[in-house]
Design goal:
Blueprint lengths: L9 E7 L1 H4 L5 H13 L1 E7 L5 E3 L4 E6 L3 E3 L2 E3 L6 E8 L2 E5 L6 E3 L7 E3 L8 E8 L4 E3 L3 E8 L11
Length: 161
């Protein structure tokens, strides 16, 4: 029996959410691709979708009351993240912090780090950064913020009056 070869001998295998489909075991995938490669030219395009990987590099911050402070947030996300927000836990209460919250800058898709412009003792607590994509929400490990007492300025002049 003769087979007719056509131009569509290439098979494109697109693997979405590879980690979930293969349960983190790529040996089954490799075996399948090896078998297919015997009969066809196989082109593999891997799109590993997952919740965003969110990192805060510093485990703790100490800052003087009245100062400005930036909590750094690094996000690695495929597919791209579409939202960023922070949560602060203090005395058993969790509060969401977004770009529209007062006294803060950042917490956006393009600038996920959180800057508090005028730190007070109310800002003390545990903070996490969260990023959202179509797969779900990724969150960082917590970072601790300790607010030190108010900074005082003392001016001294040795001029006699």
């Amino acid at each position: 029996m003769a087979t007719q070869e056509n131009d569509s001998t290439d098979i494109e295998v697109v693997l979405k959410d590879l980690k979930k489909i293969m349960n983190s075991d790529c040996s089954v995938l490799k075996t399948l691709l090896l078998i297919l490669s015997v009969f066809f030219h196989v082109e593999v395009v891997v799109t590993a979708s997952d919740v965003p990987n969110v990192t805060i590099p510093n485990a703790e911050y100490s800052i003087w009351s009245g100062s400005a402070m930036t909590l750094e947030c690094i996000i690695d996300s495929i597919p791209n993240h579409t939202d960023v927000y922070w949560q602060k836990e203090s005395h058993g209460t969790v509060m969401n912090i977004t770009s529209s919250s007062t006294n803060v800058y950042g917490a956006t898709v393009t600038k996920p780090s959180l800057t508090i412009t005028h730190v007070t003792t109310d800002d003390e607590g545990q903070y996490i950064c969260l990023a959202v994509n179509i797969v779900g929400t990724g969150k960082s490990n917590p970072t601790s913020v300790k607010v030190l007492g108010k900074m005082f300025y003392i001016f001294y002049s040795d001029e006699a009056y």
